[in-house]
Amino acid sequence: MDARAQANPRRYDRLVLARLFVTGLLACAAPAFAAKPLVYCADASPEGFDPALWDSSSTANVTSQIFQGLLAFKRGTGTLQPQLATAWVVSPDARTFTFTLRRGVRFHTTAYFTPTRELNADDVVFSFTRLIDPQLPFNRAFPATFVYPQSLGLAQMVAGIDRLGDHEVRFRLHRGNVNFLSYFAGSYAAIHSAEYAAQLLAQGRASAINNQPVGTGPFRFKSYRKDDVLRLQANPDYWRGIQPTEKLVYAISREPNVRVQKLVRGECHITAAIRDVDITALTGNPAIRIEKIQALNISYLAFNMKKPPTDSREVRQALDIAIDRNALFKVLFPRGDALQAVSAFPPAVPGYDHTLKNEYDPERARHLLAAAGHPAGLEIDLWALPIARPTNPNGLLMAQMIQADWARIGVKARIVTYEWGEYLKRANQGEHDVYMSGWSSDVAAADEFLTPNLSCAASRGGIKFCNAEFDALLEAARSEVDEPKRLAMFQRAQQIFKRERPWITMAHSSVYIPMRKEVQGFVMAPNGSVDFEGVFRP
To answer: Topology of 31-44+218-293+511-538 in CATH?
Structure first.
């Protein structure tokens, strides 16, 4: 062990890991030939191109090709590895996180921006200060809601961000957080160019950061037509080396059967995750292969916690136990490899409370409605998911089946739906009574499901769940270094969740992504997302 290792063994270990990682990348370098264009059949348009502003998977599947964070998850796993940082040190109390930045990284050169320097600490400080300080000049010029950082309560967590040198940055927290390191691998934590932001600010065009993206990733933005096509091209200055695929095209098709047919005809080469019903149609096709993973995901129906009648716990519980999940699963998940969701995260996540159960009892549901002041039933809006997801392959059909179940207890449900972007916008504004949603994670950690969705920080305007006892358990768990104690806190939090019923939990599913057999280099992610770095068609 040399002097550096003796002085700081934890830092040295991470430096060795970083070097091994880069060596592995060089060993698996892209082929020298120019690969053919790669077309991905996407299921929805991105909401925008600034990853800090959005938290839908459709958007992250785009921005993750353009942007990178300090850390990343090793492909196909939830294991953290270096990305724009080469090393990091965490204090024993999990309150201080210090990163050494990678040298030689350049931001994209585009028609609207030419960088004059490489990535440095200024870019990291800008990117994260923007998420926590509304008085930052850039934020005053372009006020925005940073959905995921706000849901995490990031501004309340971070005590300070320190520039220690051109290639070293330190984050200080008010309280310890054993999960904080994984936050740096989230899509929202992408590093922007401070130089580009300054240019936009000087031009009075700060909002262009959301539609003219500049990142450090393997692909750079070329052109976009909403609900039609997005074109990306290989970044010639990419620090890992230029991609084998020069042209990456997103063909946007909302209808699952359209995407399947395009794949069969060779019009696209990979598609967004498909429904159970489409698997049979593709099985046996000699030109197609289907990748599968048991994802860390959940679908649910979220209640508006602010307005009647869903502000009543008895009403929420009645609507939950009136749903015949067994009948619903036979229709929506005919292959039988989806799990009924009981808690707020899958059973594979440590800390899962196996004592919790779902219930189907229409008679008791009627009594609960009567006790809540609705003996003759009630009327309610039920929002149907407008796009297909592995955990909800047919939102309209699910809504129709739930509508029939609710009718049996005297509840008249009006089914409502919108175009995907409008659906998300209106739900975030609290226009719904009940709406279909979902979540997925790269990491088998309870906090990755609970805090972004169910903490008080995540409850914009009181629309979502906010419970002081529940929040206190999450806060205590984040700073608890003793794992059994931490997991016990998450179990108690789940019991509160099940008692209060902010969600009707629906499904955990496998994710199937089909592709043409000639596609090489694609690796499934635990959350079902797509990563096209190193993916090509020879």
So the answer is: D-Maltodextrin-Binding Protein; domain 2 (3.40.190)
b/e sequence 55-69, b meaning 16+ C-beta within 10 Å: bbbbbbbbbbbbbbb
* Domain boundaries of the chain, sorted by first residue: 1-30, 31-44+218-293+511-538, 68-216, 297-508
Q: What is the pLDDT of residues 49-90, one digit of tens each?
A: 999 999 889 999 999 999 999 999 998 888 899 999 999 999
Edge-to-edge strand list for the sheet holding 96-101: 85-90, 96-101, 168-173, 158-165
CATH H superfamily, domain 297-508? Dipeptide-binding Protein; Domain 3 (3.10.105.10)
Report whether 58 contacts 420 (CB < 8 A).
yes
Please name which of 282, 249, 286 lies closest in space to residue 514, comparing C-alpha atoms.
Answer: 282
What do you get for the CA distance between the two ends of the chain, in Å?
44
Q: What is the 8-class DSSP label of residue 103?
A: S
Pull the structure tokens for residue 288. 């197609």
Q: What is the pLDDT of residue 34?
A: 63
- State pTM to two decimals: 0.83
Please determine whether the domains at 31-44+218-293+511-538 and 68-216 fall in the same fold group of CATH.
Answer: no
Residues 461-476 have pLDDT tens digits of 779 999 999 999 999 9
Query: Which pLDDT does position 9 carry in this prediction?
Result: 37
Q: Within 13 A of 362's CA, how many CA atoms are on the CB side?
A: 13
Question: Looking at residue 108, what DSSP letter applies?
Answer: P
